[in-house]
Amino acid sequence: MNKEPIIESSGNVFADPGFAPEEAALLAMRAELMTRLRETIAERGWTQIQAAEHLGIGQSRVSDLMRGKWEKFSLDMLAMLATRAELQVELTAV
Fold first, then answer.
1. Domain extent listing, the chain
2. By CB atoms within 10 Å of each CB, which of 19, 26, 54, 76 scores lowest?
């Protein structure tokens, strides 16, 4: 039986498959903001229509967010939505 070698993760799931460090960092930040927004919407029990009203976007955009369509959201847009949801957005260098 041939076993694949186990490779320790760098801690960034985007860096591990070979994305450039700067792109991996941006993708990780976008993923984190999307996750926090989706969790916040769920915790507050908002429907997609209510979330759209609170976030100042259309319901179809909330649907994209909830379905994890990260390619449709820039880091700027996600930071703005998080701020509208009254989340604290911080950037820390690692």
1. 21-84
2. 76
